[in-house]
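The passage that follows is intended for readers who have already worked through the single-chain material. We present the inputs for a multi-component assembly, then the predicted structure in tokenized form, and finally a short commentary. You are encouraged to pause after the input and sketch how you expect the pieces to fit together before reading on.
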Amino acid sequence: MAWIAKPSASTKIERRDEPYFTEAMQATMRDEYQPRFETNMACILPALHLIQHAYGWVPKQAMHEIATFLGVKPSDVFDTATFYEEYWLKPKGKVLISVCRSIACEFCGQPDITNAVKQRLNIEVGETTDDDKFTLVELECIGACGGAPAILMGETLHESITPEQVVEIIDQVEKDIDAGKFDHH
Ligand code: FES
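Having made your guess, compare it with the prediction:
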């Protein structure tokens, strides 16, 4: 894998007036996490989780606010957030479609599943639909090889899926989104 240099020094941080790292989150950190961890550095992970759970991703302003709250360097928070693929550094759609691309799923038809999603939503892997409803990613093994090909639609696992079924599921989930049943998965 090639190393990618991060333009950290020249990165512009878009800011909004309202803080992302709310009073309630700070209270959660003080009451639940800081007593459990020996150092504030160790509290970076749960703080990032709180942000991602609330907003679906981790804005740079939020990383800065976490650093201020914990008394650590902003670069420590940034390095942690960029190290783990779990953290989203840009906004994603309301529902994340994760298609497993590892070997069992690939052998059992995963490329057709990915293509069906791409065509139905008119996006490429890694992109979000213009209406912010769906983001498509491919993941390595999601631990459901016995049911290959497998996908996660939000947090729901679908096994032994066909291209036709994945389109039907998207149709249904889109109706659910329009009915207000989904938010940041
Ligand atoms: S290879 Fe797809 S779930 Fe394991």
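Commentary: Strands lie at 95-100, 134-139, 151-153, 156-158. The chain has two domains: 14-83, 95-178. How closely did your sketch match?
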